[in-house]
Amino acid sequence: MNGFVFEALPGRVVFGSGALDQLPREVEQLGARRALVLSTPQQRALAENVAARLGERSAGIFPEAVMHVPVEVARRARDEADRLGADCVIAAGGGSTIGLGKAIALHSSLPILAVPTTYAGSEMTPIYGLTEAGIKQTGRDRRVLPKTVIYDPLLTLDLPLAMSVTSGFNAIAHAVEALYAEQTNPVTAMMAEEGIRALSRGMPLLARDPRDLDGRSACLYGAWLSGLVLGTTGMALHHKLCHVLGGSWNLPHAETHTIVLPHAVAYNYAAAPEAMKRVERAMGTQNAARGIFDLMQELQAPLALKDIGMKHDDLGRAVSLVMQAPYYNPRPTDHDSVLGLLDDAFFGRRP
Ligand code: NAD
């Protein structure tokens, strides 16, 4: 075994059906007296529910989170937190809402309590993103890592099936890349493998019944582990590709991760044999790339970049952007090989 550094991130996790009932106690434990509750406009009812549970410890709600955390929304949210004298932020929702909480914490150091309702995993990472004039900047800062996370599968029962599936593959992508990341280590690998196992067991249960609580719990547990390993390791080519496609072509986040994943895995297959064995064991498949692709097909996930707004003529420019500032990757990258990967993802070919 090679030497390694494992960075345990601080944070408290409360997991289980009905875990949201523990919210008042958890807010009290944080020492907070006036919490500002964030959500998207679509999840306003959740923000109101959270605020009602807090009673006088609620400072108010800000149900204006949107995709990609535009700086102007972040500024308004910060002003609202100031105006209300908030001493804590509760982010109830998916990665966009948690991202808004992080934008507030980055400048104010207010503690975040996150209540995730998708499988994106942002609640487990010190990574933040902010978009100004169409350009998304990301960074890492411990101040944005939530202090407490409440995972309640009951809150995910109404996450539409199609979103559950793409969000689930988004989470699997974090776990897969953590297995061959530069900073991978045996502890991270164990959690990543278990995350993949839980998600690939849970998602087919949701396909049969999106309100299956066992399936919902498995997926949320898998999402937690996948977010955790995303937060503690660097990522590789897959995440770089998705970052470029999302940032420059505005392709939808979870769908892009889903479509690119089997091709990134096929690209790295021979260069990361131990990682691939873990994926195969977790999914019960003979080949990691084909196993992921076949599960996507079974769950009717999107398969091709051409179907989510990408143009074939733009693939070359995407590769150039990837090659300008490449991430670490187990298999070296060159323009033509990465173009081949994107071409396969564009047409949705089985790896
Ligand atoms: P999202 O937060 O944008 O949510 C998409 C939509 O689904 C929203 O309208 C939301 O209100 C709705 N929704 C969420 N949960 C629901 C539920 N349970 N029931 C019904 N509707 C629900 O999507 P996302 O995929 O969770 O997050 C994507 C964003 O998160 C991207 O901007 C991405 O960059 C970011 N992200 C950041 C990190 C990080 O570590 N910083 C990690 C992963 C993702």
Layout of strands and helices, then pairs:
Layout: E1 12-15, H1 23-29, E2 35-38, H2 44-54, E3 58-62, H3 71-83, E4 88-93, H4 95-108, E5 112-116, E6 127-132, E7 135-140, E8 148-151, H5 161-180, H6 186-208, H7 213-232, H8 237-249, H9 253-268, H10 273-283, H11 288-298, H12 315-324, H13 335-347
Parallel strand pairs: 1-8, 2-3, 2-4, 4-5, 5-8
Antiparallel strand pairs: 6-7
This protein binds nicotinamide-adenine-dinucleotide (NAD).
Q: What is the number of E strands?
A: 8
Structural class: alpha/beta
What spatial order of strands do you see in the largest sheet? 1-8-5-4-2-3
Main β-sheet description:
6 strands, parallel
Distance between the termini: 31 Å
Spell out which ligands are present.
nicotinamide-adenine-dinucleotide
Compute the number of helices.
13
How confident is the prediction overall: mean pLDDT? 96
Question: How much strand?
Answer: 5-15%
Principal-axis shape equals globular
Query: What's the SSE pattern?
Result: EHEHEHEHEEEEHHHHHHHHH
Low-confidence stretches: none
Structural Rg: 19 Å
Query: How much helicity do the residues have?
Result: 40-55%
Structure characterization notes:
This protein is an alpha/beta fold and 351 residues long. Helices cover 52% and strands 11% of the residues. The strands form two sheets. A six-stranded parallel sheet has the order 1-8-5-4-2-3, with helices on both faces. A hairpin with a 2-residue loop joins β6 and β7. α5 packs parallel to α7 and α12 crosses α13. The radius of gyration is 19 Å and the shape is globular. The structure holds nicotinamide-adenine-dinucleotide.
